Amino acid sequence: MEKFAFIIHPISASKDVSRYKKYRFAKYLPERVVESFIKRKSPVIASHITGVKSITGSEAEGWFIACPLTPRQLLTLPQEFVYQRLVECGRIAEDLGAKIIGLGAFTSVVGDGGVTVAQSVNIAVTTGNSYTVATAIEAAIDGARRMEIDPAAATIAVVGASGSIGRTCAHILSEVGQSLHLIGRDLARLEAVKSELTPENSRKTFCFNSVSAGLADADIIITVTSAVDVVIQPKDLKSGCVICDVARPRDVSERVAKERDDVLVIEGGVVSVPGTPEFNFNFGFPPAMAYACMSETMMLALEGQYESFTLGKTVSVHQVKHTEKLASKHGFRLAGYRSFEKAVTDEKISVILRNANKRKTAASLIRNMERTPAGRKSPV
Asked: 261: which residues sit within 8 A by CB, 6+ positions away?
């Protein structure tokens, strides 16, 4: 039996902490008050994971280890304090017999991307970012085809393109679309990513430090920032586009789901785990489904590949391809689509596509009317 662990943490202090029976009072308190309370708490075992079984026959069990810090705390508290909490999680995993631990959500972003943690514990560490990239790209391209978008003729945008996940997405997607938009806060860092591409792909790549400008003509969008607040609003999006939101917390505002019935928003990295897994923890997914970062940790355990795999601020294309091979070998696969914690059915996609086509037709009619001289009949 292979053994693994995975670090989770609250995204919203009040909402997520109140899931625990003895802390239900947290939902009535301000975020800052709850954050002050949980800062003094040590990491704990959140659940025991059973039933993970590869199609090769290999089996694994694991544990969710809860680090009681929110994204804001992980990014703003002294780095030494945050590292101490993450190392404490690693020590718990060691005591349980785990041989690898995955860093979930913002614990993979802070500091040096797991390098210090890996140096401070006696088990392997991975951020899960390699398989996150693989599933994000797979979901975005498949979603585009369902929305009748030809990826080869599309304008593709990566929001957060200078980050570890975004940079690798940019490298891979530069081979796919007609043009590539790199979006982030720092133009110099975006230009550095662009310079890494082949000359041919670099010529069709453009950098933006404005989200709305970069997304204006985008057909396919992957958003992977480490922002605490949402960065994509309804007004930013082209009708009929596909957005794969890999970030946690989400980059896409919930207003998009309410106001834009003509765009497809999907969550990246939703994976079906082989076997009959019981996570014994509700993180908003149906049974047997997990995030890609969790799945990378599990597949490395099933493979017996107990080495620190995806660490630091870079993810190589080779690492992405390796996790794709492991996923195929052990039976992990993209598990359809979810959006804002709800399943996206084929019927839902058909409705979105129909709405997008109606808007495009209406926009075309308006343009034709505007171009028709006064006194002449419109050709439409």
From this structure: 351, 352, 355
Q: Find the helix packing angle between 129-146 and 346-371, rounded to 10°.
A: 60
- Residue 252 per-residue DSSP state: B
What per-residue confidence (pLDDT) applies to 342? 81
Of all helices (H) and strands (E), which one includes residue 28? Answer: none
What does the pLDDT read at residue 330? 98
The Cα–Cα gap between 245 and 268 comes to: 6
Show the tokens assigned to 69: 């810090």
CA distances from 127 to 16, 136, 146, 310 (A): 22, 15, 30, 6
The predicted structure's pLDDT at residue 297? 98
> So what CATH class is 131-269+338-362?
alpha beta
Where would I find the H helices in 99-173?
Answer: 115-120, 129-146, 164-173
Q: Enumerate the CATH 3.40.50.720 domain ranges in the chain, comma separated.
A: 131-269+338-362
Q: Rounded to 10 degrees, what is the CA torsion of 19, 23, 24, 25?
A: -150
Measured distance CA(95)–CA(99) in Å, rounded: 10
Residue 102 in 3-state DSSP?
A: strand
Amino acid identity of residue 199, one-letter, is P
Please, which residues have CB within 8 angstroms of residue 264's CB and are 6 or more apart in sequence? 143, 146, 147, 241, 242, 243, 339, 344, 349, 352
Low-confidence stretches of the chain (pLDDT < 70) are: 20-21, 269, 371-380
Query: What is the per-residue pLDDT for 373?
Result: 61
